[in-house]
């Protein structure tokens, strides 16, 4: 089990101190998919980088605990952390160019991951690498295994990267928009593969996405993030059937067709506030269609609103007088 408690991350930026993540909590069980959802800039990717202790140079974890099967991870040395990264917790980044070595054949990179994290060696590791390339949908894997990354298309590089992460047989996988760049057929194949690995080996998947159709098809638990905080946390079925936070409701109302790929998250009016601001009240208030008078002054806490459902909204904890003009301006 992977458990994060009260994670806070700041970034030093020209505009000032950015509170990129402000009190994040989540629990990921083995065999389960936990989807982290939100517009870009809400802190999803930063959460992933913090978990892997791979924050950019201007980033800092200022509070929080990360436990992996009961063991605290943020306190580990960098050398110990290298043992965790890849083997225990794998990661698929948004941008494949950053994690493939351009001067090494793709097969050698996958074999390296297999030899570092499993008992297979030599010809067996190579056969396994070919098998992984096949499973992620690379055509003619026996031939492609000896290509250099520059010979592959962007989508193929993305798949090689996924193969490399899976080849290390991690217990947990953090996947940041793993299929966004891929075409629909390949996306479906990769998501199916992740589900199979979940069944076969109890892989725990932290899926970072802005695609609610992918969430609906994959996730057991959903956390919706807004401006560096979780605003709603629930089992996926409840999230879709009975969203509680006004932001969640607006997002789901704006979904043109839940079965359609790439269902846009940005379809609601307004933009995410810049995170160097000091917030006094609810961060969502400027965009909220249910905002009340005290929402601008009182910061809501994440609290239980149903037996297995949490939301960060004063409608549930401190209901009050509605604003006269309830609907926010459209863009
Ligand atoms: Fe809307 Fe107020 Fe709830 Fe914030 S606290 S989401 S402004 S109703
Ligand atoms: Mg991102």
From TrEMBL:
Residues 2-252 form the ABC transporter domain. It is a peripheral membrane protein. Keywords: ATP-binding, Cell membrane, Membrane, Nucleotide-binding, Transport. One of its GO terms (biological process) is peptide transport. Coiled coil: none annotated. It is found in: Cell inner membrane. Its main location: membrane. GO terms for cellular component: plasma membrane. GO terms for molecular function: ATP binding; ATP hydrolysis activity. Belongs to the ABC transporter superfamily. This is ABC transporter ATP-binding protein. It comes from Paucibacter sediminis. The lineage of its organism: Bacteria, Pseudomonadati, Pseudomonadota, Betaproteobacteria, Burkholderiales.
